[in-house]
Give the backbone structure.
Amino acid sequence: MLELDDITAGYDRRAPAVRGAHLSLYPGESLGLLGPSGCGKSTLARVAALLHRPDRGTVTLDGRTVTGFFHRAPRSLRTAVGVVFQQPRLAADPRLRLRDLVAEPLRATGRRTEAGPRVAELAERVGLGADLLSRRPHEVSDGQLQRACLARALVLRPRWLVCDEMTAMLDASTTAALVAVVEDYRAETGAGLLAVGHDPVLLDRWCGRTVHWNEIVKH
Amino acid sequence: MTPSPPATGAGADAPRPGGTGPVLHVEDLSVRFRMPAGRYVEAVTGATFTLAPGESLALVGESGCGKSVLASALLGLLPGNAETAGSARLADGLDLLAADERTLARTVRGRRVGLVPQSPAAHLTPVRTVRAQLEETVRELAGPGYAGHATEAPEAPEAGTGPAAGGRGTSSGASDRPARRGRRHRLAALRAAARAAAGRAAFPASHLDRHPHELSGGLAQRAATALALVGDAPLLLADEPTTGLDRDLVERTVDELRAHTRADGRALLMITHDLAAAERIADTVAVMYAGRIVEIAPAGAFFGSPGPRHPYARGLLDALPERAFTPVPGAPPELGALPPGCAFAARCAAADPLCRTRLPALTEGVACHHA
Ligand code: SF4
């Protein structure tokens, strides 16, 4: 289970972006969270991905209450969640070749030796040609970079995926391709998914269940 | 020889207020980038299309297909290693590809071509009010001397070259040389011009003194549109104006752009990856693949029946979540290593040996040997 209980979070304590949010995902479930831009759903996605400490409330991941966030999250929990953001250019270190970008989480967790075969397998899965792996972010398109960011999110075989507007900048074909990659991975591993977005047509097609922002926060 | 631009009988600098010829005529436009080791990246090849007054054209395609390079070429904003060929003529005959930077900066960007920015949040300066930004844009477009910055008069020579220059309210009193006009008078004109631009974009005057972060997404988008409309340009160029917006806001944004296009006989070129936005706004759709326009069609026929004719365009529509939600298989070729025949052949179910060896030309709106 991934449970967010009464979460209040934001960047300004006097005006939190999220107030009293509740959300729970069953193992293997795909949940779409629909909300208008600027509503705070990205902040909540960061909390769910253990990247942002809430001001109030509890996050429970597979039965364990999360006490540390971002760099303070215990490694065993941090590696359980993979995350993809809307803007690959902001999420990718511009100095890294795509190969190293995808392998980064392996290095960070001391599993560098697995990188070679794992990166090759994932590149194939997300549709990145071998020649692209030696390029840096500015040498590829947004769509290609987002493919690399998705591969990075999958590299540690997470039990949970958080996709925050993953396809908002992408064309229809790349969108359908990346959603298919996520769904294939989930079918294979039984991972759960929180997909945050603003497009009801996309989320309804993608996820087993969709909730609207208004239904999960306090008013 | 390229066909002559629409200005039949009129000189290149004759005014064409309310003219019926195309607002933009792009003919065989190509852009390539010189790379190290004598390599070239063919970003745009042989693009040809026209935009009539009141017409909205959506140029769609995936990221990296060349559509943004085409927009940069029209604005003269290509990097130094770019080489262009062909022409892109405005109604008054000015070729945007041949114009020098001074002409582009002084008479084109913002005046004859209004740019609707990609993200209003990024485009609007956070520390200044909407009014201040509008006034500054008016001042920039009017040239040095406006609002008493220098003694030189506002641009006059270009004022007659088209509906763009001058603009409503920005240089009223063309006969009264303003060299000695009072500073206060000019400030009043400046304020009025900024207010008028806001009004045209339906931006409420009551919000002019707010900062961008105090605006809703919709109002921020309107403020950005107001900036694009300040110069009253006959051609609006919108580069991914709806990226990251909710559907509501996408719809409102494109409806407004469309209204500005229709009502005032402007033309709109919208570059987008968002097919829903394209469907809502466009009279004409052009699909770009690997640097070429592979299909150009009336929007009704393209999105409705009989639907797209080019296999890539069909695949792109089928990828929509409201349709089959299946991606086009494979990936586009590198623009620096295009195959000899049809660039889509490696991904196309209908490809045959002819496709792999001979490049299909765009004929009757589609570039495919088997469409
Ligand atoms: S020319 Fe051939 S390969 Fe290209 S789109 Fe048409 S059928 Fe497919």
